[in-house]
């Protein structure tokens, strides 16, 4: 099993190019199921989760062509098996995103029910509630969500909480429904907006995306289109945190500052100097960071997917940072691993109190989930001595060549078996 070996203490200097967003690419690849024409995508990140989605679609009979690793052509003109099997869903929860498109276009779907994962129980009851409101019959049988509907009907859906993939699944389903669907309490995340823009290029009638009320007027059919996946704001934020923790000056290219205002505000509060243009962000960190308080909430507030990386930053900051996780019930698994490197973190339910120490010391630590892994890499870059991060298959789900990108800005980091 691969590990990352990091020799910390080197400031980071140079440029990193940001990849396309995992959380936009995955739903957009699944949107290819909504038409028999070809959907052409560029800026698709080269990630394990993208590969899993490719396998999932190919298993159904969808033709997925990738001449260049970042360009995909998806043609769903011969879909034979309307099923997302357990062995793929268990490795990637986002597989649930085939449910809405399959049901809308083919009238039936069987998707293995995703179980809980390292960060929480993560039920999909809101996806099901929304599809039922649109007239689908849904039952849970043998570990699968089995859904059928002759043709989905437009409905007004109010989700109990803001759910990103829930909004995406229902928005995709509604594009081919009969009549108008309104999703209230919709997620406003940039990845939802990117998906909506791709669907509009495919002929969908959607308005309100980016607000908490999305209105979709169903059409008879969607057609082929071309779309470029937006930059990954979480990868961007992760490298900014790495540069803030290890200190130095790093320029991120092919990204957009407007996607991560809340994160940039916290980095400024921590003492980082930031400049940004249309498609770049420059961060310089000249001194020890100051601890910041963080409360995770749906977009546009501070993202839960950046909480672990800020915990690593707070771990070496001056002062005490209070971190509240309000989205997932078990997203502090990195805290005990950071403590093995000398961090002082007290976790009480949804709150972690992080008292910064002058220096962390390298240790062997274990990654428990995707962003927890990223926080251990950041801690390793800032720590004295050698850190080995075990179980980095989590990282490979969501970061494209992280060791190569960090190596280019001077990090001493290598992948070892
Ligand atoms: C592939 C993808 O885009 N993943 C992102 C997506 O996950 P994902 O879409 O799975 O997360 P949700 O936004 O759905 O979850 C938000 C909260 O709602 C709860 N919930 C959600 C749906 C539901 O039917 N019932 C329910 O109770 C969840 O358990 C969680 O507590 O948004 C999360 C929150 O920004 C991010 O951390 C993930 O990176
Ligand atoms: C939690 C995440 O992803 P997923 O929803 O795919 O588990 C993430 O990207 O941080």
TrEMBL record:
Main location per the UniProt record: cytoplasm
Residues bound to phosphoenolpyruvate: 22-23
UniProt binding sites for UDP-N-acetyl-alpha-D-glucosamine: 93, 122-126, 305, 327
Pathways per UniProt: Cell wall biogenesis; peptidoglycan biosynthesis
The reaction(s) this protein catalyses: phosphoenolpyruvate + UDP-N-acetyl-alpha-D-glucosamine = UDP-N-acetyl-3-O-(1-carboxyvinyl)-alpha-D-glucosamine + phosphate
Top-level taxon in the UniProt lineage: Bacteria
Protein keywords: Cell cycle, Cell division, Cell shape, Cell wall biogenesis/degradation, Cytoplasm, Peptidoglycan synthesis, Pyruvate, Transferase
Any GO MF annotation of the entry: UDP-N-acetylglucosamine 1-carboxyvinyltransferase activity
Catalytic EC class: transferase
Active-site residues, as the UniProt record annotates them: 117 (proton donor)
Modified positions (2-(S-cysteinyl)pyruvic acid O-phosphothioketal) in chain numbering: 117
Enzyme Commission number(s) from the entry: 2.5.1.7
Domain Enolpyruvate transferase: 7-406
Subcellular location: Cytoplasm
Entry similarity comment: Belongs to the EPSP synthase family. MurA subfamily.
Entry-linked HAMAP family: MurA
UniProt cross-references to PANTHER family, sorted A to Z: UDP-N-ACETYLGLUCOSAMINE 1-CARBOXYVINYLTRANSFERASE
Record's function text: Cell wall formation. Adds enolpyruvyl to UDP-N-acetylglucosamine.
Protein name (Swiss-Prot/TrEMBL): UDP-N-acetylglucosamine 1-carboxyvinyltransferase
